[in-house]
Amino acid sequence: MVLLTGYTAVAAAVNAEVFPARVRAAGVGFPYSLAVALFGGTAPYVGTWFKQAGHPDLFPWYVAPLCLVSFLVCLTLPETSRQKLDR
Predict the structure, then answer these.
(1) pLDDT above 70 for 86
(2) Residue 85 lies in a domain
(3) Which of the residues 40, 43, 60, 69 has an alpha carbon 20 to 30 A from that of 34?
């Protein structure tokens, strides 16, 4: 939960800075919903599949690349602290 607070503490501000106001809801909502559906929705299936295949220890290796992609996206976000927000 401590790691999660690092995201939730700044998520609203980051979302407000990345997208202009006219597309902010769609810009935040669509990618988030798509990622949750593709990866969060399939995680139980993938975990069960690994377990049935006799490799339950592979599930963290499924999650690790997804975390790496998230980390890389966070690193490449533009710095907008000195820019005026589009309304």
Answers:
(1) no
(2) no
(3) 60
Q: For 31-82, how does the pLDDT look when each residue is reduced to its tens digit (9 = 90+)?
A: 889 999 999 899 999 999 999 999 999 999 999 999 899 889 888 988 877 7
Closest CA to 78 of 20, 4, 5: 20
Same domain (yes/no): 72, 61: yes
Rg (CA), the chain: 17
Range of the domain at 29: 1-40
Buried b (16+ CB within 10 A) or exposed e, 32-70: eeeeeeeeeeeeeeeeeebeeeeeeeebeeeeeeeeeee
Alpha-carbon distance of 84 to 65, in angstroms, equals: 34
Asked if the structure places residue 25 within a domain, the reply is yes
How many structural domains comprise the chain? 2
